[in-house]
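Reposting from the mailing list since nobody answered there.

I have sequence plus structure tokens for a pair of proteins and want to know whether others read the tokens the same way I do. The first protein:
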Amino acid sequence: MKKLIVMALLGAMVLPSMAQEFRVGATAGVNVNAPSGDDTGLTGFNVGVKGELGLPQATEGWFMDFSALLSSHGWKSTGYYDNITGTSLQWEATPYYLSIPVHVGYKFNCSDNLKLFASVGPYASIGLFGKETVTATLAGKSTTSTASNNVFADKAHERFDWGLGLRFGAELYEHWQLSVGYDWGMKDTNKAGMRNRTLSVSCAYVF
């Protein structure tokens, strides 16, 4: 019983201080995918919610940042030419993921209304949906058809992805955050060995 009382007292002291350092917000931005290999990346988006936990127990300025994002990573193949039929084929897909990055970072105070920050950490993504099309061009005439209505259900893409991300940005007036980031995918996302490489520019508002 005494142990329960002590734990309750410690929780009562620690949790309020942690709550004061915890903030939530909304974030949205643009993705520019640059997948590994010969494929061409397409411009997409990311949107979701984020949380930020200050870590003053370590050193003032350190924080942990995590998000849940709907994120698109589109790509287009460079094309394949069939010498026998004289047909040129090009595939295009836009898979959508639920991405969960977890970063640890540090904020540099520049003034009362401006902080610069940098963070690094892993991410994990779960494939939700996405369509793939193929365009066949013969004698100057092109025809586009659906190769897959769901690249994850049809196993054209691996459903799970993971990697490492890096972010740099600025916090304005304690609430607005502008950031530029880059994510390195560590896992092959299809049978061709493509890996996601994504540059993102995002804007967030935290409360």
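The second protein, same order (residues first, tokens after):
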Amino acid sequence: MESWKPQIEINPEWPMVKLGEICDVRDGTHDSPKYVQQDGFPLITSKNIKDGKIDFSEVNLITKEDLHKINERSMVDDGDIVMPMIGTIGNPIVVRKDREFGIKNVALIKFYADTKAINYYVKEILDSNLLSTHYQNQSAGSTQKFISLGFIRSLEIPLPPLEIQRVIIDKIEAERKVVDGCWELIKNYELKIKDVIDKVWEE
């Protein structure tokens, strides 16, 4: 269940568009700024994006000057999508920004003011089984799994009307709540079984 991916039924009448045609697709810095021990700003890489959010618990810090240089190229705003490009690729998330940070070797997907795509819909499409398999096939054969910025820009995604995108988002969220509930139930039963086994051994 931890590897659950959304299943999206694609209507063949929906137009297919390249991601780079409807979104501003960039990436983070390729440089390696000098890290600082304190009073710095987080530099987010692929390893910090997991479980549907940014994990700030083990992150390298950079200076305000280096953050400014990175943000001139790839400023992350609330509602943008970030997605690992190296190592564990895929796993896109919609950013809920509550602090300043920079990104390195991470794809950044920004949405135009007049966009015809909802960020959460695009995120779910990018996280679907179909595209996850596509990422793995593209990165196969290399020692370090990697997908390029050009590859991400050229990804073709179905683009139904906005109202249908909203319906799809709501449906996936409902399914995710059911899956999460089942996963919690399994973990609770595993704990109960362990307790029973421990008591048997004590006897």
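Reply #1 (J.P.):
I read it the same way you do. The mean pLDDT is 86.
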